[in-house]
Design brief:
twelve-stranded antiparallel β-barrel, Porin, 12 strands, globular
């Protein structure tokens, strides 16, 4: 299953759509980037919150918590490295491999690929393809990718 994450270039609100393969809205992501915790809310098309992500305050490296249906499922931690960013995903047993900066990486559970993400070229604004292997991993994989994207945005804004 493929999802397309398209962030609008000239948006006054911190809101963007996640589209399905046919180009229809599947999820809406609303961010509170000017809040202290960099909160993200993921809603389905009926307006129900399906996931919630927030950044832990006072952490040396970025650390995000993911909740689905009100229950904690994962913690995404950026690990200390000198050259390339590396992430640990606690709670799901997943790991991330690939080029995080270029949005070209794979999420694994053991040796099984859970999802892959890559940047789609020739689109106005940023568009990323999230290819999820199993339907039950759809919302957790989307939340993990968005949390990683938040750490990159946080790093860009601080440099």
């Amino acid at each position: 299953m493929e999802l397309y994450i398209r962030q609008k270039v000239f948006s006054l609100r911190d809101r963007f759509s996640v589209l399905d393969f046919a180009g229809n809205d599947k999820y809406f992501v609303e961010g509170e980037f000017f809040s202290l915790r960099n909160k993200l809310h993921i809603y389905d098309t009926a307006g129900r919150e399906v996931a919630y992500i927030y950044r832990k305050l006072f952490s040396f490296l970025p650390r995000y918590y993911v909740y689905t249906n009100g229950e904690y499922i994962a913690e995404i931690v950026r690990e200390f490295t000198f050259l390339t960013p590396r992430y640990r995903i606690d709670g799901l047993g997943w790991r991330v491999e690939g080029d995080i900066f270029e949005h070209n990486y794979v999420i694994y559970e053991g040796e099984r690929p859970v999802a892959s993400i890559y940047k789609k070229w020739f689109s106005w604004g940023d568009c990323y393809v999230l290819d999820i292997k199993n339907d039950e991993d759809e919302i957790p994989a989307l939340a993990v990718v968005l949390a990683i994207d938040c750490t990159l945005a946080l790093q860009e804004s601080s440099s």
